[in-house]
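Reagents: none. Just compute today. Putative site-specific integrase-resolvase.
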Amino acid sequence: MGNNSNFLISTEAVCKILHVCPRTLYNYRTEGKLEYYQFSRKKIMYRIGDVVEFVKKSSYSSIFKDKVNSLLEKYIVHL
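Predicted 3D structure written out:
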């Protein structure tokens, strides 16, 4: 992933990538499982590198981890 790990992506993008709802992502934040950056009350962003680390440390299956990595790579291409 290299230099792209510092790119910030939206809550909506992370929800799509991880296949979770916004409430689950909120829980990950409040439990300290996923680092985030809050720019205003409603604007929360995530570093791609942090999302990758979260997936690596998670209990997701290796097949799902491969799909997440593929989605992240596609997302980076569209930035």
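The chain has one domain: 2-77.
Action item: order primers for follow-up constructs.
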